[in-house]
Amino acid sequence: MEVIICANEEQVGRIAAARIASALARRPDPVMGLATGSSPLGTYAALKERVDAGTLNLSNATFFALDEYLGLPRTDPNSYAETIRRTFTEPLGVDPQRVHVPVGDAEDTDASCEQYEAAIAAAGGIDVQILGIGSNGHIGFNEPGSSFTSRTRTKTLTARTRADNARFFGPGFVPTHCVTQGLGTIMDAGRLVLTALGEAKAEAVAAAVEGPVSAMCPASILQFHRYATVVVDEDAASHLQLKDYYRDSFALLPQGRRPV
Ligand code: GLP
To answer: Which fold is adopted by the domain 2-253?
Structure first.
């Protein structure tokens, strides 16, 4: 696993975007996995800079989001479909027809989850998946205890996740369920780029990167991926034991492998 410790959020975004851009450059019609939350916003801003500068062309790319709340129509301002539209699709000028989000209010959710998996496969698989991390170590909405081989399906949100996400909703209502790509789906991506910011993520980042691989910390499955990059700021890195080694590894990267 590659771990890169950055001075600030802007640098996290720039380095994550560099890794993503090189993964996308490997195919003329690449597929990118999108995440919601605050963690990927700097990455989206850095990708937008590349699009605006003409160094990154996303017009032939296809996009698949990680997850969605169950029961929310896609027009709800708090739906992940709407969040992705607002934070990624519109600012980067991407064709909305090319952006897929799991359906939160399908008549037949199980069938809709299977169709989502089939659509990813039909697009040729995900070349690079962006990930955030929940304070309990979840990725997508794969809560602790999720099967490492899981595919897109519904999950119940933990009390901690509901509390973390309550700030987005009015008093008295926080969704209790979601549809999320499984850990097996995420692991099929060609490259994983996880970003984390702030002290609140430090414990989860340490468990994911240096703890035992365990369903109790779903993000720890990244240790089994051939091409996983974790980009964190100083606060999110604060509980890592091998910080000096990660800094050395980055400083000693050969010219061709430097992200920026
Ligand atoms: C939600 C999303 C995750 C995201 C996490 C962290 O639970 N389902 O995909 O990684 O929040 O969000 P943030 O980046 O805002 O801390």
So the answer is: Rossmann fold (3.40.50)
The enclosing H or E element of 42 equals helix 41-53
Find the 37 Cα to ligand 1 centroid distance in Å. 4
Marked catalytic residue, from 9, 68, 136, 142 = 136
Q: The tokens of 46 are what?
A: 């850095």
Q: Answer whether 15's CB lies under 8 Å from 3's CB.
A: no
Distance between CA atoms of residues 81 and 136, nearest Å: 23
132 Cβ below 6 A of ligand 1: yes
Kindly give the distance from the C-alpha atom of residue 196 to the centroid of ligand 1, in angstroms, as a whole number. 10
pLDDT in tens, 4-14: 999 999 999 99
pLDDT of residue 256: 79
CA–centroid distance, residue 140 to ligand 1 (Å): 7
pLDDT tens digits, one per residue of 77-127: 999 999 999 999 999 999 999 999 999 999 999 999 999 999 999 999 999
User: Looking at residue 70, what is its pLDDT?
Assistant: 97
Q: Catalytic site residue 142?
A: no
Residue 141: φ, ψ to 5°: -120, 30
> Does 260 score more than 80 pLDDT?
no
Where do the structural domains in the chain lie, given as residue ranges?
2-253
Q: To the nearest whole number, what is the mean pLDDT of the chain?
A: 96
